[in-house]
Known about the structure:
six-stranded mixed sheet; five-stranded mixed sheet; 12 helices; about 35% helix; about 20% strand
Amino acid sequence: MAGFVAIDFGTSNSAVALPAAGGGVELVPLEGAERTMPTAVFYRADTPPQRLEPERLVGRAAIAAYVEGAEGRLMRSMKSLLGSSLLDQRTEVGGGRAVRYRDVVTGYLRELKARAEAHAGAPLSRVVLGRPVFFVDDDPARDAQAQAALEDAVRAAGFAELQFQYEPIAAALDHEAQVASERLVLVADIGGGTSDFSLVRVGPARRGRPDRRDDILASHGVHKAGTDFDRHVELAAILPLMGYRSHRAPRRGDPPGTPTAELPSGIYFDLATWHLINTVYAPARVAELRGMKAWYAEPRHHARLLTVLEERLGHALAAAAEAAKIEVAQRGLAPVDLGLVEPGLATQLREADAAAALEADLAAIVAAAVETARLAGVAPGDVQDLYFTGGSTGLAPLVERIAAAFPAATRVRGDRFASVAQGLGIHAQTVFGAM
Length: 435
């Protein structure tokens, strides 16, 4: 096998492509037969003290350890840390140990490399890595900082040679392998962290060209996607049962009818944001919340929120929000069982409430799609294909909203979780050479 690999390092899931023995590319089975692996790391708190590094599980094993109640620290959405000041901070992972967030990213990439090398039976020193159009919206300096941080992590993971390719461009290359004539395609790559669009010309006569810059008419994107949807659903449907947007209890001596302020919202926003959930479990924050009992007009809200913090249920609430988001899109109504917080506690997410919670993000994503066509100088009606990839394109209302903005385009669905990796593999063959 040629010594190169392609990696789609995703916010929620990752995939790896290698040259296939019979030509083309193949996705590496990363966990058993599974071709994608959750971008998740779990550090065990019970690592023996003689070990220099805490024991680390990745992917489904990481999530399983967390769900089964193992003592430790689960981290997801590490990609969202790129370009942030958190990247070089250390975070507690249990057992008196701490790790840098940067090292979490490097360790995960090193594991992807090792699994690809095991499948290839050879060392892999060169890599094509996908990147979103924008790691950080409207901040070129931080966006460049994010790419540089990812490059540092890739090199620390053991790769000597690296090239980046935009994730939506990679998806266009995967689509191009299926078309029989030249097409004008708007690629919508909507994953866990970003919604990226590229307007691209594809076709048989263009395949295999090492430099496709002339075929890319425009790229644009916004840092809004699946994890943002989950956060809004959690804030709208779940966290009000723990006091979010409730008002403080009246203070002693206030005249009757005196308006009271809302309870502080910071803890709720952190609780609904994957990479910040563990920060609410800090002893100082838990102690602070215990001392705020008198602030709550509804004592049950305080008791439920304290249970969430003390029993570390934040990720379980996030998972419930994600499941409700998916179910409401399919059925129009999603029951949400919260018995883990309080016996018998439950709520439901209605389609209208979900639409209201997601409206601002959906509107921003559609606007980004339309802006991509404008930047390319192409009328929306001239787009021939809409190519959807990324896990969040399973949300039907989102697909419908984008499609309505391009009424003449044919909808094409790629593999939601593997199209980008496949396209990155095609690009890797072009830039690094065939077997």
